[in-house]
Structures are given as C-alpha cells and as structure tokens.
TrEMBL record:
Database matches in Gene3D superfamilies: Glycogen Phosphorylase B (3.40.50.2000)
Catalytic reaction equation(s): [(1->4)-alpha-D-glucosyl](n) + phosphate = [(1->4)-alpha-D-glucosyl](n-1) + alpha-D-glucose 1-phosphate
EC annotation from Swiss-Prot or TrEMBL: 2.4.1.1
Organism: Insolitispirillum peregrinum
Family, similarity comment: Belongs to the glycogen phosphorylase family.
Record keywords, A-Z: Carbohydrate metabolism, Glycosyltransferase, Pyridoxal phosphate, Transferase
Protein name: Alpha-1,4 glucan phosphorylase
Cofactor: pyridoxal 5'-phosphate
Amino acid sequence: MDSPFPSVPQSLVTDGWDPVAQNDIDAFKRRLFSHLKHSRAKNPETATSNDWYQVTALAVRDMLVETWMDSVRAAAHADSKQVYYLSLEFLMGRSLESNLLAVGMWDVCLATFADMGLDFGGIKTEEPEAALGNGGLGRLAACFMDSMATLGIAGVGYGIHYHHGMFRQEIRDGQQIELPENWLTHGNPWEFERPEYTHPIRFGGWVEQGQDALGRPFFRWHPAEELMAVAVDMAVPGYGGFSANSIRLWAARASHGFDLVQFNKGEYLDAVRAEVDSESLSRVLYPNDSTQQGRILRFKQEYFFSSASLQDILRRFRREQDDDFDLMPQKVAIQLNDTHPAIAVAELMRLLLDEHHCPWADAWTICKGVFSYTNHTLLPEALETWPVAVFEALLPRHLQIIYDINAVFLAEIRQLRPGDDDLVRRMSLIDESGERRVRMSHLAVVGSHHVNGVANLHTELMKNGIFADFEQLYPGKIVNKTNGITPRRWLNQANRPLARLITHSIGDGWQTNLDRLRALLPLADDSAFRDEFLSIKQANKRRLALFASRSLGAVIHPDSLFDVQIKRIHEYKRQILNVLHVITRYNRLCQRQFRQNVVPRTVVFAGKAAPGYVLAKLTIRLILAVADVVNRDPRSRDALRVLFVPNYDVSTAELIIPAAELSQQISTAGTEASGTGNMKLALNGALTIGTRDGATIEIAEEVGEENLFFFGLSADQVAATVRDGYDPWAIYRDNHELAEALEMVRNGAFSPGEPDAFKPLFDSLTSGGDRYRVLADYGDYIACQDRVDAAYLQQGDWTRKAILTVARMGKFSADATILDYAREIWDVHGTSPYALGEQRN
C-alpha cells in the first residue's frame, strides 16, 4: 500500500503518548531518513508503508545492537554460566512495538510519525508475524527469553528458522484451509545470518567399530547424507535496555548445493534436487505427521536443531574452557523445552565420546550435569516415541548410545529393586510392547538432573502418573515451576490504555515487578477507578467489534458479554463443550419464555487445528456452521453471536485478550499441563470460567474462588470414571437439553445439505466413549454459565472482581518463574537491576 496510511484513525494512534522533545523527534527522523536513503534507496515521496516499517525496524535495531553486543561481551568476560534454551518453537509475535517499548522509544516514534503526518498504526501492521511457533509452547519460550533478558540472565534460545512456519489458516466454505505462512517475503530486518557458524548435520549410513592404537574401543559413524545448519540470530532486548540475549535459529542448507554438470546436461530439476531436499528440513513447523514422510521429516527436524545447537554450545564452551569438559556442568545449563529436543542427550554423548574422546562414565556424568527437562503434557500420545527402525535407518550411532544408556540405567534399577522385572519393563528407554520404540521422555528424564512440571497439579499428576516410577526411585528430581507470562507484552503492550491507567494510579515499576499490582486492591472499591477501568474494557470491545466488521464482515455487539475461548483446537481443550452451550443457549432463545432479561453474549473462538487432526478440523467446521445459523436467526441474533477469528496468532491475541470479559478454561481436569492463555486473559481483567485444571487452580488461589466460576469433575473424579466405568449414553438420556443439542449436531440441523457431516463428533461423545468427559461436565457447565449471566447483570460487582483479578496476578509473571529456574535448576544469577532487587528479596 502506498502512503498515506488510512487503516487506523489518527486519534487511536496518538492517544496516550506523552509529549516529547522536538530534538528527540528530529534525531529519530534523521535515523529514519538515513535508512530510507541508504538501506532502501527511496525518497519519502516514493516510500511505501512497508518501506517505512523496514526503516523504522532498522533504526530501532541500530539502538539494540550496541546493548546486544555489550551483553554478549560482558557474559564472556565474566566467564559466567550460560543458559541454553532448546525449543522447537519460539512464537515471538511482531517485534517492532515490543522493541520500541523495551528501549524506551515508543513515545518518540509515535511523535515522529505524527510530526511527519504519517499513521504509525498502519505502518506497524506491515510487520508479519514471525512464523516460528504455533501455540502455548512457543509463546512460553518467547516469554522466557524476554524475562531472561530483562533479568540479565545470560543465555541463548536455540530453535529452527522456519521458512513458512506451521500454516496460515483461512476459512473457505466453512472449513479450515491451510496455506503457507510467507512471513519472509520482504525479508526480516530483525535477523542476522551468521554463515561463519555453520555445522554439519548427518543422517543414515553405518557405524564402524574397532580399537585404536592404545587398545581403546572406538566407534566411527559413516553417514550417508549430510546437510548444513546455518545460524540466524535475533536479538531479544530486556525491558529498560540494560541487557539483551540472542535467539539462534538454524536454517537448513545443502552441503554441496547446485550441480552444474547436471544442469549443463539439461537435467535442471536433478541439478537442484539436493538443495531443495536439504532446505525442506527447515521449511515448515510440524509437518503433517499423518504420513510416514511427514513423521520422518519431523524426526529429522528434531535432530537437526538439537545437533546444531549442541555443536554450537560445545564451540562456545571450548572457546573459553578449551577441552576441560569436566567444567561443563559449572558453565553450561541446557533446558529441554518438552521432548522435541530430547535426542540432544544422545547427541551430546556422541559428541563427547566419538569426537572428543571422553570416557563413557565421564561423558554421562557431564550430560546429567548440564541437562534439565520441562514436561508439558500428561497425554500418553503426546509423549514422543520413535520406532527403533527409524533410529536404525537415520541415527544408527545414537541408537547404540541409547542402548548403552539404557543398559547402565536398567542395571541401576535392578540393583535398587532386585527381581522387579515389571519395573524394569516400565522404566526402560525402549518400549518392547508391539513395535519396539524409543521413549523420548524417558531419555530426557534419565539424562537430566531436574525434571519440572509447569503447574502444581500437573507436577503432582506427573509424580503419581506418567513418571511415578521415576519419582519413587529418585525423589526430589521432579519439581514444579508454574508457567508465567511477560507483563511487558501481555499488559504494557497489548493493553496500553489499561497500562497507562495502572501507571497513573499506582506508579511505574509494575512492568518488572508484577506484585506491585496489589496496590490496585483498594481501588477495586473506588467508583471513579472502576468507571475508568470499565470504560477501557468497553473501548477494547469496540476495537474488536470494528476489526470483526472490517476484516471478517461480522457484526458483534460491544454491549454484550464477550465470552472468549482462544487456543489450539483439540478434543481435551473441549471447544465442543463450549459449542454445546451455544446450541443450548440458542435453543432457549428460540422459546419465547427464555427471552426475558437475557444477558446478550458474544462467543469468540480462535485457534488452529493440526492438518491431520480430523475431529479438530470438524470441530472448527461445526463452530462455523453453528455461527451461521445463530447469527442469522432473528430469534437469537440480538442476544447471541458467535465469532470465529481465523489464523490465530500473537497479534490477534493482542486484539482479543484486552476485550475479553469471560475466559474459557474448560479442559478436562487433569489434561491441561498449565495454560498461559488463562494468565493473559486474567491479567487483562477477564473473569475465568473453568475446571480445576492446570494453573487455573493456582489462579483461583491467588484471586479468590469468589472471583471466578468453577464447574465440573476434578482430576480425581475423572480418574474415578476411568477406573469405575463411565456411560455417556446414560447422561444423554437423563438430560433433555443435552440430548436436544446433540441430536441437532447428529441430524444435520447445522448442515442441512450434508446431514451426516457432524456425526463423527456425535459418535465420539457417545458410542466412542466420550474420552474427555464432555457429557459428564455438561450439566454443571450449563448451570455455571447461568451463574455467569446473573453475575454479569451486576456490572459494578463484576468490574470489582475484574480489578481484583488483575491486582492479584503477580505470581504469574514469567520473571518470577525464570528466577525460580535460575535459583533451583540452572544455578545462575541475573545481573540487571530488576534481578538484583528480586534476588535480595
């Protein structure tokens, strides 16, 4: 789009920034014009909105680079312990606004563009979402990197430089369609490619065994395939500009590249085949694993980034410590974010044994001294296992090492529990039942000095469930670290009007010490503050309604209750339970006697379904079909609206979360590890309706159960239904409203042209056994929603509860979580003023 930029009214762009000095505006303007000329070769008259975004990013990057380089240099000179965070995802969102706020240039930037008569609101939307993650796992990693930088904890995040990310979700003909995320079309001004840091990654082949001249056994891997991992770096600035850390992402490149001989023979496709095959490894996040090819690609991705990262970590370590590998546990902390990088345990052993010739016992002691592992799931199917045959074909040396680790580990178990063969079978790294498979979570647990869950309930269920044997043999190894979110992104940036109100009311400093929000507690009873708080919420709702109208062609009413469920589409997250409530509400509205004193409701859904997850994609289709019926029916459309926001990402979350009034956290108790969406929504003043699951339990402990809405079975009660038997048909027969809603799903009320379209969803809830106990919780959920309606009618009290919720969210800052990791797992200390203050406390 050519300038000028009319997408956002100027009043919304300039509202709230403080007056800044003209010399600051002139200095920033000079930076912009210099980059416009020298980096873009453009004049102001010909510059497009993307040009202005690019030069602004480059100007801000200039400011970040000095702090970034100083931080890296200071960490090296201090010879301090480094933290390396290995994650398959980093869901960073847009960087321009967060980086401006971090370096304190937000107001100057707004003033500069206003002075030039340009709309910065339109310019900043030119930045694409960095397609480096999908959901909570990637967003958590991004929050943790922000907190580490803010606290001055030296570290590097390692991941993959995805060319397309997961996929861009579009809705066509009422269904999810997956398209490439072309986020790199115009390049990425925030990244630096580092070709000097390139590491070989190998697959396949065979392993030679023998003895060296001293009679020591050796293993030499002769791989069949090689490609290169090239480093791409991005700076992560800490708030206040005191320090910055790095995210290093690996891009796949061919080791040999273009074949000129084949090309000159006219074999054009064959000439570039190796290059294309190699680069496909870092092309897409989570390739469709419903095919064997997709599963193999996923396996190779996990090894690709784990191997490149460990080679890089060893390079860094040897630069400072030479080959004194016994020092590694004192200088290196490696956090495995879920099981995706678990192969790193075997890879570090391979590097130490085969390339650096460490004795086996020493190498294993080093491994267990540097690794720690975060588990994010209780679902058995989400605990990765890989067929032994895949290891044999692609990583034969690693399979040998895993066998050796397993032999040592099982010998230890037999010594501790002689004769307990069943325990040996359960704890083995190799699952021998059916197809032999490597249990990656067991490898991560055995190879780590600490294993952590991400919420109190989750950790206890780990100890008593999936890792109960490990807990009994190694008490104290499994610890809890409840997840957190960064208040810089999720309040100070995403909800600037509320952030300004908070700062005006209680002063600054809460951005780096979220406990300071408790100063808001007395203001919950202050009518003037409540009015301001409510006014901001209404403005955020109007903003979302404007987006729905302009971008989606949907009409939603800002005076209705905004009821929000935004998360990955999955059976255990139970979007289907939410849909059943919508259908029940619709059925009631179709009856005249229920239309009196009804609370208008807008139900907002957003989330992606994995391409191969049939029931999840069908759930999206049902949401859209129900929305089409409900939103068109004159009996309901003034009192009930349903909105599905496609392509849910960080920017969409920043739009929806400040507008939300009711936060749906309705997973089956005992299935959600933690959740961080629950924290973001609560921090922005949404009241929670939910089960006693994940971190929602801890949120209730902080904000008070009287300020949220609990319903449904507990984790123990869910387990009892598994143990004692469960009949969903009995619940179906006993609840008229439930039966009516389910029959409408089964019989095509929402798909008249295809009556059986949603029958698989009906079957999964009935004859399929209702694995996630949707029907068991339905009745209590509907009753709880009635309590929500009654509470919303008391707007003063509702707003008071919302303010109390915001005020009591200090525990859920990612800064607090990272300080816990630093003290209890990594044994490191922060160096920024924020960290020093917290550490003294």
